[in-house]
Structure formats: C-alpha cells, structure tokens
Specification:
This protein has 343 residues and is an alpha/beta fold. The protein has 14 helices and 11 strands. The protein has helices at residues 2-26, 33-45, 59-70, 86-89, 127-139, 173-177, 191-199, 206-211, 223-233, 238-252, 276-292, 300-311, 319-322, 325-339; strands at residues 48-53, 73-78, 90-94, 100-104, 114-120, 141-144, 147-150, 155-161, 179-185, 270-273, 315-317. α2 (33-45) packs across α11 (276-292) and α11 (276-292) packs across α12. It is globular. The two termini are 31 Å apart.
Length: 343
C-alpha cells in the first residue's frame, strides 16, 4: 500500500510539473494552447511529433520553446535538398594543418545524452535521409564508427510547411507512421493574440524569446520512467476498450460501418493504414491526457480529444481521393465519432 501511495504522490508531483511546463511554453508562444497541450501529451507518451502549417505561423518557435523548457541535450538540423544521410552522423573538413578531420554530426555530437532532435523543414531532405531518421525514431539507436549508439531519452520533433512543393520530398508512409502525432498549426484567431504577435517587440526577436524561457522545467532523464508509470496507472474499462476497437474498425472500413460522405464511393475510399501500432499510440496518448486531467481512468473524451492528430495521418486514401485529403479525412473522423456510440 505504501508503494501505491508513494507512486500516486509521484504522479501528482509530475502533473504539477507538467502544468508548469505548459505555462512556461505559453509565456513565449501565444494563441497555441491546443498545440502546446498536444505536445505535452506526446512528451509524456514518449512519441515523436511532426508539426505542419503555413509559413511564418510559429512552428519552429513552438518546437524550440518546448525543447528549451524540457531541457536536456538538444540538436537541430535544417533540411536541404543536397543533404545526405551521413550529414546526420558526421562531417569532414580540412583542419588548419591541411589534414582531413572527421567530427560527430548533430545526432552523435551529444552522444547518448541527446534528448531532443529537431529536424527543421524535414520535407526538404531526400528519402535516403528519411530512411536513416526512420531507424533512429523506431529503435532509438544508430550504428556508426563500428559501435552502436543508443538514445534512451530521444524524441524527434520535425516541421514542414504546407505551401512549398518545389524541391521537397513527401515523407513515405513508414516514416509518417513513426510520428505519434501530426499537429496542424495555424495563425491564432484570437484578436488579442494577433495584436501581440504583430505589435509586441518581444515576439520579434525569436532567439531572445527562447533564451528567456526557463530551461529544464521537467527532468528529461526521468521522462521515460514517468511515462511508463502513467501507462500502468491509467485504467481502461471493457466499455472503453470496445469503444476504441469500434472507432478503429469504422475508420478503416467506413462502408461496412454505414458511414456515407457526399460524393465519395466509401467502398473505394480507404487504401490502408490505421495499423495496430497507430491504435496503440492512440491509447498511449489518451492515457496521458486522462492523467493531465487528474483522472486514473479513461473516458471517451480522452480518445476523441487526440484522435485526429494521432490517427488521421495513418489513413491512406486511394489516389483518386488523395488530393482532397485535407477535407475528406476530417469529415471521416467526425463521421466515425457520430457512428460509433460512446459508452
């Protein structure tokens, strides 16, 4: 009993720390409360995150703020069309004495203490780079210089913009599936937030803004252990389990579930996706959401609150519908919620 009580007290302390973390990030990034909550969930669920949105809406600023508040070793790389996989691992140069030198690249520079790896404009990098990143995300390990490096605390953040298509490379399905969440970021709609972003000089110097954030609000080295404790501590009733399976079934077989969308042949809509791994990610994220809300059991709203960000990018449409993904998939998710009765 004492162990149970001490475990509950520990999770309560960490919930308070998570609240401080969110308030810290909100102090530097205005009008993005939902995105900040989703990123917090991903951190404690130990999942990688892809952020996408229009140019200049603050994707990079948000991810830098989250990394700063989390603390730990941090590395960042900019995606370019001429980048090679080796650029992540090492770089070569001629020293002052004229001799070639080899030094660790951004992944290995902090060695196994690396906590956050931020890949800016990931869709500018070639598929060969994506393949190396895929292993790093999936296994948190890498082979280089005749040894294996392990990164137990690593989480990968990446961003891309929705506008540019020239000299960019779409992420393959396998790489996208490694991201727990794909979070869309738009400019804030609130008038006061818009005024502050335009007229408050504090938001015009991003480097100074990030430097002003308290670092290490969370103990990054303990995040994996706390994440595991949350997963074991938040319970799912048989009714919730049946609800999640019902949502999954309706998402991948909408025609059989009786879902109808205007102008769409539902029997020819879904090509594949929404794997067991994706649904497991959904439950992991939902458990963290319940914990942040102060509960030790799941309710339907925990599932619904994170469903689009966790599941939408795992649904692969037939090519004839793919160009309309941005409207079809949200409609499909809403229809799934309307079709599957919540307990």
């Amino acid at each position: 009993m004492n162990d149970i009580r001490s475990g509950d007290a520990m999770l309560t302390d960490w919930r308070e720390a998570a609240g401080r973390f969110e308030r810290t990030v909100r102090g530097a990034v205005v009008g993005q409360d939902r995105a900040i909550r989703l990123l917090t969930i991903a951190l404690f669920a130990r999942g990688h995150v892809l952020l996408e949105g229009d140019v200049g809406v603050g994707k990079t600023t948000l991810l830098r703020a989250v990394a700063r508040a989390l603390g730990g070793a941090y590395e960042r790389i900019e995606g370019t069309v001429d980048m090679m996989p080796s650029d992540l691992i090492y770089h070569t140069y001629l020293a002052d004495d004229g001799r070639p030198r080899v030094e660790p690249g951004p992944v290995l520079r902090q060695s196994e203490d690396l906590s956050i790896f931020f890949f800016n404009e990931i869709n500018r990098a070639r598929p060969q780079v994506h393949s190396l990143l895929l292993r790093l995300m999936a296994e948190r390990s890498l082979n280089a210089f005749n040894r294996e490096y392990r990164f137990p605390n690593l989480q990968v953040f990446a961003d891309r913009n929705r506008v540019e298509r020239e000299e960019t490379f779409e992420l393959p399905a396998a790489a996208r599936d490694r991201f727990m969440m794909e979070i869309g970021l738009d400019a804030p709609r609130d008038a006061e937030a818009r005024r502050a972003l335009v007229f408050d000089p504090r938001f015009h110097d991003t480097d100074a803004l990030i430097a002003g954030i308290d670092g290490g609000v969370l103990d990054h080295a303990a995040m994996a252990g706390i994440g595991a404790a949350i997963q074991h501590g938040i319970q799912a009733s048989p009714a919730i389990e049946a609800y999640v399976v019902g949502l999954w079934e309706a998402l991948v077989r909408p025609a059989e579930a009786g879902i109808r969308l205007s102008g769409i042949d539902m029997s020819a809509l879904i090509q594949g996706g929404a794997s067991p791994r994706g649904v497991a990610f959904l439950v992991r994220a939902a458990r963290v959401r319940a914990w942040l809300e102060g509960r030790d059991w799941l309710v339907p709203e925990d599932i619904r609150a994170i469903f689009p960000e966790v599941m939408a990018h795992r649904v692969f449409l037939e090519p004839i519908y793919e160009m309309r993904r941005s409207t079809i998939v949200p409609e499909l998710c809403r229809a799934v919620f309307d079709t599957v009765p919540a307990p």
